[in-house]
């Protein structure tokens, strides 16, 4: 190359750019080929899931709400009523007291897998295994109680509630936990499609960023495919990242990184215990609830009872749609003294980001969140459909379906791009595994091409 010849320098630059773009087109297409069927399922089930509040309001209004009449009975009365209605031998896991005037009390029960280890506490038996956070054991059942009359209004298996049914449909297609890999694989390659798509769209030279009027045919499909994909890129990145944080394999990697950089959320110390003194009586449910409300933010909360004589009361927020009111509270089972408390201010930057990102992903911040996610979902469907429309409009003759690679395309990637690819593969193990398979196919295709060329030459 002659540095004094600017035309030669431009030619080399354009050649490198063309080779690199051909490589990224190839990777982008592989991503579409792998992710499209799984992404289609994820988007359709996700659109259904984001309307959970409206669907549940129609399905469970008679369980979730009652007409307020007079004064509420003590929480203990509601717990006793729920315990009587629960199947024999089941143990109480947690209780969500009524928050709004028309709310019911929700008491969750599950089969006692360690019946010999149970301990009595007031009128009920508590599970020998402590429950934390928002999850309930498999097979749990919720008993709904009118807080004004202490009368059971209904029961429902926790897994049957639409919120949980829709979540399982979206994440594992109502199959076993082992099916979660499909959605994770789709999210991994959608991340690759997003990043390569942004690079391919990025305006260069005379290329314009916005769709141009008058375009027809494949050109119109292409510009709208690119523009819509990039327009939703921030939402896409948020949805994909938050989805991967609770996936099986990528989630493990994210948690290792989180813990390694000191960004794990605060956790309740394992050695906390209630002080037992002679003659002291354990707190009733009402007393524990009153003590919790004095120290907790003004939000619907979930109470988990003590296990054993030295057990502790634990309280957390009952929903995720107010992340700034997220809290963990531990009380002595006899005195009601606060043994541990952590709120929003104690959360790490990472835990705050996930506390906001996950409910956003689920559309739990209200109608604006649902409308945005619906628009995003429709945009993803358009991107998938338009991508395949463009493919069939320009499909090469014969059996070749992959975009053409320019000579030296694989060598055109920069060091930074290779480093980024390695980081993505480390963060997303299913991407690494499937990318290895793709590379093996690429090698086979390359060798097949050379063999065919040699045969023709001879």
Q: Summary?
A:
The protein is α+β, with helices and mostly antiparallel strands and 458 residues long. The chain has a domain at 62-165. The chain has 13 helices and ten strands.
What can you see in these coordinates?
- The protein is an alpha+beta fold and 458 residues long.
- It has a domain at 62-165.
- It contains 13 helices and 10 strands.
- The chain has a 4-stranded antiparallel beta sheet with strand order 1-2-5-6, sandwiched between helices.
- A hairpin with a 2-residue loop joins strand 3 and strand 4 (124-126).
- Helix 5 (180-201) runs antiparallel to helix 7.
- It is elongated and about 85 Å long.
- The two termini are 35 Å apart.
- The relative contact order is 0.13.
What is the H/E string?
Answer: HHHEEEEEEHHHHHHEEEEHHHH
How are the strands ordered across the major sheet?
A: 1-2-5-6
Helix content: 40-55%
Uncertain stretches of 5 or more adjacent residues: 1-11, 116-133
Gross morphology: elongated
Mean pLDDT: 86
**Strand segment tally:** 10
Give the radius of gyration.
28 Å
Distance between the termini: 35 Å
Write the SSE topology.
Layout: H1 6-50, H2 52-64, H3 75-85, E1 90-96, E2 105-111, E3 119-121, E4 124-126, E5 141-146, E6 151-157, H4 162-172, H5 180-201, H6 217-231, H7 233-245, H8 249-260, H9 285-295, E7 301-304, E8 312-317, E9 328-332, E10 338-342, H10 349-361, H11 367-393, H12 415-427, H13 429-457
Antiparallel strand pairs: 1-2, 2-5, 3-4, 5-6, 7-8, 8-9, 9-10
Helix pairs in contact: 1-4, 1-5, 1-11, 5-6, 5-7, 6-11, 7-10, 12-13
